[in-house]
Write a structure and sequence with these properties.
The relative contact order is 0.32. By secondary structure, the chain is an all-beta fold. A hairpin with a 5-residue loop joins strand 2 and strand 3. The strands form two sheets. The chain has a four-stranded antiparallel sheet with strand order 3-2-5-6, with no helix packed on it. The protein has a two-stranded antiparallel ribbon with strand order 1-4.
Length: 107
């Protein structure tokens, strides 16, 4: 539960895979309203340390809460910023995002 327009501190944990090239990949965190419309978003590069296979790396991000009270879905996606159209990577569940939970905004 957060106040309208408050800063939401979020942490993600990443684990590198077999010498993959993560240099052009970015993560986006998004808050979606009840209709699935985007109300807040932050995009950041993946941590450079993720290039090390088997190494877990933390990443702290800040997202601004919407001005309107309500319950919002928090999702994360990873996309390739070097490719036109910014294609997202697919999850093992054949989705292009992960549902992280809900954020409630109230006075």
């Amino acid at each position: 539960k957060v106040s309208p327009e408050a800063t939401i501190d979020l942490g993600l944990a990443w684990e590198g895979q077999q010498a993959a090239n993560y240099g052009s990949l970015k993560v986006t965190l998004q808050l979606l309203d009840a209709n699935g419309l985007l109300v807040s978003q932050i995009d950041e590069a993946l941590p450079s340390e993720i290039d090390l296979p088997g190494v877990s790396v933390g990443q702290n991000l800040q997202l601004k809460a919407p001005a309107s009270a309500g319950t919002y879905r928090l999702i994360a996606a990873v996309y390739d910023a070097s490719v036109p159209g910014l294609p997202r990577l697919w999850t093992s569940k054949t989705q292009d995002f992960l549902e992280l939970g809900e954020i409630t905004v109230s006075q």
